[in-house]
Design a protein that fits this description.
Elements (H helix, E strand, L loop, with lengths): L2 E8 L16 E2 L2 E2 H11 L5 E6 L4 H10 L6 E6 L4 H11 L5 E8 L7 H14 L1 E6 L6 E3 L5 E4 L7 E9 H14 L6 H7 L5 E4 L10 H19 L2
Parallel strand pairs: 1-4, 1-6, 4-5, 7-11
Antiparallel strand pairs: 2-3, 6-10, 7-10, 8-9
């Protein structure tokens, strides 16, 4: 049986957070940010294994203070990150048991609130189309600005999509594209761009406005409010 694996990227430095602690290790309701996505993937029945990618100096910390402490299951391997995000992804892809992998989901640890249905739909659409990514429609009007700060025009909001993670792919396809990318010396900002660069299409499906990426101190305030909302819903069930 072909299996599905999640690669969780936790090797980023998070310089915009302005903290000496990497953002994925900051405490959110007495648990590290990294815990939440690992927990969600580990309890999803469609996920068979998790590869965690982190800084080489954080491997033991993650093993002892996150995985063992919070009893996170399905961890297949912890591998070191690379110089760039795409290098970290390739390291993660190389650690996946290639002979049995069907779909691989690539997720940023800085997005703690990935939901069960986002994971399920990502796998479903990746199986159907080869590649899929969740995201949301922008609520604001988006302008194009010139170098002097003047507006050049307004984009059609109905055609815009703010991409989130996880981004989900046929394993052989994304591995082949990432290896080509490395050979060609091209830099990209996310994995959908890797796929698209080599002529493949990505299906976009609904994510969640709660699936925020923690980047700045203000995001931690929003994250705490999401936690409070989840706790309130649980108490009212």
């Amino acid at each position: 049986m072909k299996k599905n694996y999640a690669i969780v990227l936790a090797a980023g430095k998070g310089t915009r957070m302005g903290s000496r602690v990497n953002k994925q290790f900051l405490n959110l309701d007495d648990r590290p940010v990294l815990y939440y996505s690992l927990h969600e993937f580990s309890k999803n029945k469609l996920i068979h294994g998790i590869i965690l990618v982190c800084g080489e100096d954080k491997i033991e910390y993650c093993r002892e203070n996150v995985i063992k402490r919070f009893k996170i299951g399905k961890i297949v391997d912890i591998v070191k990150g690379g110089t760039e995000r795409q290098d970290s992804v390739l390291n993660g892809l190389d650690a996946v048991p290639s002979h049995e992998c069907n779909i691989v989901l690539i997720h940023d640890a800085a997005r703690p609130f990935v939901e069960d249905n986002i994971i399920k739909n990502g796998i479903k659409y990746a199986e159907r189309y080869g590649a899929s990514a969740c995201g949301i429609r922008p609520k604001d009007t988006i302008k194009i600005a010139d170098k002097l700060g003047f507006s050049l025009g307004t984009l059609d909001r109905s055609k815009l999509f703010c991409v989130q993670t996880p981004q989900c792919f046929n394993y052989d396809m994304i591995l082949d594209c990432h290896r080509k990318l490395k050979e060609d010396g091209i830099k990209v900002t996310d994995d959908t761009a890797v796929i698209e660069h080599y002529g493949n299409k990505v299906y976009l499906y609904d994510g969640s406005y709660n699936n925020i990426k923690i980047t700045t101190p203000e995001d931690m305030i929003i994250a705490n409010s999401v936690i409070e909302k989840y706790q309130s819903l649980t108490l009212n069930v």
